[in-house]
């Protein structure tokens, strides 16, 4: 919760907060509708919920011998060109970001495809981007809704982008952005959901307060070996879609903690709030000053990510698949 419990809200935002389910209150939507096979760094149009002057910032690591490493925009429904290796075998990563139960549009982003000659073992000499961070500034109309006593929801889609040492991404909203090349810490307080190094293939509710050095985590949501590397991984695990939905309950007073809980859905499951309540981790958190939170960031190992949403209800951030969804149908307040 914030240190001050009273905050002025623009009239349009006040109306959005009390909107009924018939009038959606989607605040942020990033479908990565950029040109396929390009670098995400510096990209940014008038996507819903981001500061008008902001663009995507990225950071990646990789093998020193590699020519380039970057966060690549991949074509929705098409193979990425990323090559996986499994012991003495190698195969093209089969993920195409085809999602059956969630409304989607645009493309998706993540590890760039392999380039360069094969090494002595017959594997690609360049394995593409290894650890990935991306971040962007939120618009003030979004941050104005982070008010004491209210609820904020967010969601994202994630999948493995390599079969060895893969690590699921963490999605954070905060005063700072994720750092430490795998998103294990942040430059300032954040509230988040995701994985961390050696997390055993689990997603966690997470936060960093002003006293913490790294992200603090609790209440794992087991997801098997989907994001933790191992030589027994197969093309099946590499195509697994992880839809992460998180609920932030901003504390009612200056002494109440801000709580976050999350659930992970497969693309074969029903997306609804009742199922979220059944699957969700136990809410936990800390006293944070969310009035200073103006950054969205994502960090982790080799991954693909898509469909970033922030809203005020479950339905805002997990709309069921149906007729083709067109972001142009959203008006300037994010309503449909």
Structure in words:
The chain has 336 residues and is mainly beta. Helices cover 8% and strands 30% of the residues. It has five helices and 19 strands. Strands 1, 3, 6, 8, 15, 16, 17 and 19 form an eight-stranded antiparallel sheet that branches. The chain has a seven-stranded antiparallel sheet with strand order 2-7-18-9-12-13-14, with no helix packed on it.
Low-confidence region ranges: 3-23, 227-232
How much of the sequence lies in strands comes to 25-35%
User: Radius of gyration, Cα only, in angstroms?
Assistant: 19 Å
* Structure class: mainly beta
In round numbers, the mean pLDDT is 80
Please report the number of helical segments: 5
| Form type | globular
- Give the oligomer, counting copies of the same chain as homo and different chains as hetero: single chain
Number of strands: 19
List SSEs in N-to-C order.
Answer: HEEEEEEEHEEEEEEEHEEHEEEH
Percentage of residues assigned to helices:
under 10%
Main pleated-sheet profile: 8 strands, antiparallel
Q: Terminal Cα separation, in Å?
A: 29 Å
């Amino acid at each position: 919760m914030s240190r001050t419990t009273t905050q002025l809200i623009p009239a349009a935002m006040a109306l959005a907060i009390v909107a009924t389910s018939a009038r959606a209150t989607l605040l942020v939507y990033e479908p990565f509708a950029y040109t396929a096979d390009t670098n995400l760094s510096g990209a940014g149009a008038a996507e819903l919920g981001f500061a008008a002057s902001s663009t995507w910032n990225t950071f990646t690591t990789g093998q020193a011998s590699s020519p380039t490493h970057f966060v690549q925009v991949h074509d929705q429904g098409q193979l990425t060109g990323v090559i996986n290796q499994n012991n003495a075998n190698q195969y093209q990563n089969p993920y195409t970001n085809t999602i059956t139960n969630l409304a989607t549009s645009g493309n998706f982003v993540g590890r760039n495809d392999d380039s360069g000659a094969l090494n002595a073992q017959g594997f690609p000499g360049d394995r593409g981007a290894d650890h990935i961070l991306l971040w962007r500034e939120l618009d003030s109309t979004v941050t104005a809704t982070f008010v004491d006593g209210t609820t904020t929801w967010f969601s994202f889609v994630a999948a493995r982008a390599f079969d060895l040492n893969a690590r699921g991404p963490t999605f954070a909203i905060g005063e700072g952005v994720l750092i430490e090349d795998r998103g294990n810490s942040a430059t300032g307080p954040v509230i988040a959901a995701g994985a961390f190094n050696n997390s055993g293939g689990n997603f966690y509710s997470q936060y960093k307060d002003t006293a913490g050095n790294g992200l603090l985590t609790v209440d794992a949501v087991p997801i098997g070996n989907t994001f933790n590397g191992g030589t027994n991984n197969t093309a099946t695990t590499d195509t697994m879609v992880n839809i992460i939905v998180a609920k932030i309950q901003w504390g009612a007073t200056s002494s109440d903690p801000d709580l976050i809980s999350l659930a992970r859905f497969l693309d074969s499951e029903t997306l609804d709030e009742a199922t979220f309540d059944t699957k969700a981790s136990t809410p936990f958190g800390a006293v944070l000053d969310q009035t200073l939170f103006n950054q969205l960031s994502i960090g982790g190992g080799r991954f693909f990510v898509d469909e970033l949403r922030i809203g005020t209800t479950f339905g805002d951030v997990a709309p069921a698949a149906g007729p083709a969804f067109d972001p142009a149908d959203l008006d300037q307040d994010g309503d449909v």
